[in-house]
Amino acid sequence: MASSLTCAGVLWALLSFLCAAASCVGFFMPYWLLGSQMDKPVSFGTFRRCSYPVRDEERQATVMLEQCGRYATFQGIPSLEWRICTVVTGVGCGLLLLVGLTALMGCCVSDLISRTIGRVAGGIQFVGGLLIGSGCALYPLGWDSEEVRQTCSNSSDQFVLGGCEIGWAYYCTGSGAVAAMLVCTWLACFAGKKQKQYPY
Fold this sequence. Notes:
Elements: H1 7-28, E1 33-37, E2 40-44, E3 48-56, E4 61-70, H2 80-106, H3 115-138, H4 146-151, E5 165-166, H5 168-188
Antiparallel strand pairs: 1-2, 1-5, 2-3, 3-4
Helix pairs in contact: 1-2, 1-5, 2-3, 3-5
């Protein structure tokens, strides 16, 4: 099977896919922020949450429902910053995934990725990583919302965790973006083979 990638390009394709997968998995998982409420572990993502209080009408009490799910509506996301973070990070993950899958196809299809296309793909990866990084930077601005305060011992504020801690999914998303911006963008410059000049 012919490849349109150099040796550096094959490494770029594999790393691009791994970075995209890390960022996408981290973005989807609701383990960006970890805390507890009513002695139950609670976690938040940008658009998902695990364990939340519901009113039990039979017992006339509030109980913790221990399951993960998305917020019912986009407006249901606890803060404006988290809504922006969801959109920005989602677009960034989409760009990284697009480039990662295209790069993998370049391993099997000849003349798919030239030097110029490789550099353009690297630029797209840089923008995707920048968007995800912006989303990760925006996320702590939402820690002053009422839902987060209830989970973090009523002591959280913007950039102040209170009784909570950062979860693995936040690090996974951010590290995938940083690796894509720094390593993959650089490797993309050497990914494509020089195109043959055909005399006409």
